[in-house]
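Hey, can you fold this one?
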Amino acid sequence: MRNRTRTGAARYFNLVNLGALLIALFVIIPMYWLFASAFKTTAGVGASPPQYFPNPVSTTNFQQAFGQYTFGRYILNSLVVAACSTALVLSLGTLAGYALGRLPVRGKYPVMVSLLMISVFPQIAVIAPLYLIMRDLGWLNSYQALIFPYTAFNLPFAIWILRNYFLGISMSMEESARVDGAGALRTLWSVIIPQVSPGIFTAGVFTFTACWTEFLMALSFNQQNNMRTIPVGIATFGSQFTVPYGTLFAASVVAVVPIAILVLVFRKAVVSGLTSGAVKG
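Sure. Predicted structure:
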């Protein structure tokens, strides 16, 4: 009986490892092809049979992305929009999460349900009214045309993550700080926030990534070339009859690298934040 149990467990373990390997290959192979193609020549990108390694290695695609197209401007626009939106989301989300998790606020359940509904609401359903609002405010082709909608759509997720972290902190620490004379904001800043830093990093990474890669609003609200973000800018490469695949690959690599670095640097905090959000409610 024990041998059968061990055999079944070994088979299950092997199946899990096989599944993990297939998923890893499914992710790694396209990423490798993206990076390899970025350093190929135009002939190498369209070679048949395909080149599995760039031969020769060329940086022409990167030069075209920054020279022929204003890709540097797209990076600046994405950085400004994503950084400002993330800062607003973390500032508002921390205060809201603290209130919903620690303070006796009336109507917490309806508020949390409303936040959940907003977080899953499709963006395309509000593009038309948002466009009219931005037009009436004179905000089209501006940073604020993206910063405020991005903040509104990413704030519910941040509040959920941070609220779960606030729920896990002992009330005794907050009470001790108040006994020592610390006010509410001082207690939040000096005592509570250092303990919820994994949740803040998690919300920040996901918010920054969502803003960095968002396409629909950026395409609808900022149509001038000097106000385009990276996804929209890359989509406009080429012309009606030509598609510069090598340049597209190079620009995509430049767009992916900051997100990859961000996730690698804060990977432990992100995993901790997601785990906490899964076990606390």
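The chain has a mean pLDDT of 84. Let me know if you want another pass with a different chain boundary.
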